[in-house]
């Protein structure tokens, strides 16, 4: 099949990268081509020293390990949250077969004909449905990614019309998966609270009926991965984010560490956990949300399944009094989490800029 000039690709398909990939355009559409400063560099493919791999936390040692194992793992957890804002968790209690099944069913959805996927459209300015989120202008650069995003808990945030009926067991599998991920988040928050010398239920009690959403990302191969990004640099507005990297994936997730984009090497059966803006605020900046992005591959596609876990929208948030003192002055104001969530989803992804909303001395851009 010969390459197709961009002008001949149907406008309705130009924002769907799978359709764009099938059309084999002679060049990457300008809408996807990043400015020079944003483009991924070949340096990101250089093998890393062991010191540049994000930490791995063995949850079983925290749940049922002996005292020495528990203390060692807690120290590792605290330093992971403080120095990296990211870690991979193993022995997390979620059955491998369920992880495999949710990946299979997500991939089956993305492989459906476009007409079927378009039955669940993501409306402009929203973050549920199939399409691209965080797109607010015609001249904004697009990510080389297709998404399916859904609200899960509490039930009132769901839009049932956007839950796919194909593949047949999609909703059933997603419910099972989300239930297990919710338990994992609650468990992790207990240990994160203990790592800060707080009561273990401090976060879980404060969060009320926590908000949970899932986003499935599909990154098709790209003939010029050096020109595009799979997902723009950003931090998450959640308290915790749980990322499942698809099996056999190429390395796609990168985190910004000491001004360097560090690729996250997938670990078999591990889940990647990152601190969101909400935990940064609650810990008064001790645990920081970290900027991250996704890159693409020339020949391999990639799938990821992301769960966002955050407090109830009605909750008033601010730095915990236990973490504010003369040496650690209050860095963030108190605010309503629902207002922050609205602010987050109505602005484009732009590093950690969204967190300016919560800063006491937010810089005003001119």
From TrEMBL:
<dbReference type="InterPro" id="IPR027443">
    <property type="entry name" value="IPNS-like_sf"/>
</dbReference>
<keyword id="KW-0560">Oxidoreductase</keyword>
<protein>
    <recommendedName>
        <fullName>Fe2OG dioxygenase domain-containing protein</fullName>
    </recommendedName>
</protein>
<dbReference type="Pfam" id="PF14226">
    <property type="entry name" value="DIOX_N"/>
</dbReference>
<dbReference type="GO" id="GO:0016491">
    <property type="term" value="F:oxidoreductase activity"/>
</dbReference>
<dbReference type="InterPro" id="IPR050295">
    <property type="entry name" value="Plant_2OG-oxidoreductases"/>
</dbReference>
<dbReference type="InterPro" id="IPR026992">
    <property type="entry name" value="DIOX_N"/>
</dbReference>
<dbReference type="Pfam" id="PF03171">
    <property type="entry name" value="2OG-FeII_Oxy"/>
</dbReference>
<dbReference type="InterPro" id="IPR044861">
    <property type="entry name" value="IPNS-like_FE2OG_OXY"/>
</dbReference>
<keyword id="KW-0479">Metal-binding</keyword>
<keyword id="KW-0408">Iron</keyword>
<comment type="similarity">
    <text>Belongs to the iron/ascorbate-dependent oxidoreductase family.</text>
</comment>
<dbReference type="GO" id="GO:0046872">
    <property type="term" value="F:metal ion binding"/>
</dbReference>
<feature type="domain" description="Fe2OG dioxygenase">
    <location>
        <begin position="210"/>
        <end position="311"/>
    </location>
</feature>
<dbReference type="InterPro" id="IPR005123">
    <property type="entry name" value="Oxoglu/Fe-dep_dioxygenase_dom"/>
</dbReference>
């Amino acid at each position: 099949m010969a390459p197709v000039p961009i002008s001949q690709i149907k406008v309705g398909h130009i924002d769907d990268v799978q359709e764009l990939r099938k059309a084999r355009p002679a060049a990457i559409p300008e809408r996807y081509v990043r400015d020079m400063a944003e483009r991924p560099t070949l340096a990101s493919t250089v093998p890393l020293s062991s010191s540049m791999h994000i930490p791995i936390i063995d949850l079983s040692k925290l749940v049922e390990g002996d005292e020495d194992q528990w203390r060692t793992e807690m120290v590792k957890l605290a330093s992971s949250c403080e120095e990296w804002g990211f870690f991979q968790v193993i022995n997390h209690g979620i059955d491998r077969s369920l992880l495999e099944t949710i990946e299979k069913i997500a991939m089956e959805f993305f492989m459906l004909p476009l007409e079927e996927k378009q039955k669940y459209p993501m409306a402009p300015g929203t973050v549920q449905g199939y399409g691209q989120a965080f797109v607010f202008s015609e001249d904004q650069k697009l990510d080389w990614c297709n998404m399916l995003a859904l609200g899960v808990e509490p039930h009132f945030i769901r839009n049932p019309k956007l839950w796919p009926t194909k593949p047949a067991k999609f909703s059933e599998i997603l419910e099972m998966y989300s239930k297990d991920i919710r338990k994992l988040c609650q468990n992790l928050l207990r240990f994160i609270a203990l790592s800060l010398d707080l009561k273990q239920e401090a976060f879980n009690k404060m969060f009320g009926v926590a908000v949970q959403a899932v986003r499935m990302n599909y990154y098709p191969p790209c003939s010029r991965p050096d020109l595009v990004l799979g997902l723009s640099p950003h931090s998450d507005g959640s308290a915790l984010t749980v990322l499942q990297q698809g099996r056999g994936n190429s390395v796609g997730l990168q985190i910004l560490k000491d001004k360097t984009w560090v690729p996250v090497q997938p670990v078999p059966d591990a889940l990647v956990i990152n601190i969101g803006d909400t935990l940064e605020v609650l810990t008064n900046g001790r645990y920081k949300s970290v900027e991250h992005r996704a890159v693409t591959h020339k020949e391999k596609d990639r799938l990821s399944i992301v769960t966002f876990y955050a407090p109830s929208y009605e909750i008033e948030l601010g730095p915990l009094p236990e973490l504010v003192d003369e040496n650690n002055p209050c860095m963030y104001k108190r605010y309503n989490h629902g207002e922050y969530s609205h602010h987050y989803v109505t602005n484009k992804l732009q590093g950690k800029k969204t967190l300016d909303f919560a800063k006491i001395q937010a810089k005003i851009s001119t």
